[in-house]
Amino acid sequence: MPGSLDTRAVAAVFDAPEGAVQLAPVPGHGAGRIAVQIAPAEFRRKELDQVERQVEDEYRDRLRAVAALAAANCGRKRAARRP
């Protein structure tokens, strides 16, 4: 694969995210033949899936923290009610 051709250069030419570009030598051909695949929709879907998982994890962590605070607060109220 020519050294002057990289994913960043191809992404710039096609105005696509760098992560959406894949370069590979073409099997059975000599140097200079490169297969270029640009899949921005697939890249974006994977990116959104990752963000969605992060948001879900953060939401779950916050729910656990709220539940722990509620449990601790309930214990204090019970202790205060005892004569």
Please give a quick description of this structure:
The protein has 83 residues and is an alpha+beta fold.
Strand content: 5-15%
The protein's oligomeric status is: single chain
**Counted beta strands:** 2
Separate helix tally: 2
Mean residue pLDDT: 83
Uncertain residue segments:
none
Q: What is the global morphology? A: rod-shaped
Q: From the alpha-carbon coordinates, what is the Rg to the nearest angstrom?
A: 26 Å
Structural class by secondary-structure content? alpha+beta
> How are the strands of the largest sheet arranged?
1-2
Order of helices and strands: HEEH
Distance between the termini: 82 Å
Notes on the protein architecture:
- This protein has 83 residues and is of the alpha+beta class.
- It is rod-shaped and about 85 Å long.
Secondary structure topology:
Blueprint lengths: L6 H8 L6 E5 L8 E5 L1 H42 L2
Keywords:
single chain, 83 residues, alpha+beta, two-stranded antiparallel sheet, 2 helices, 2 strands, rod-shaped
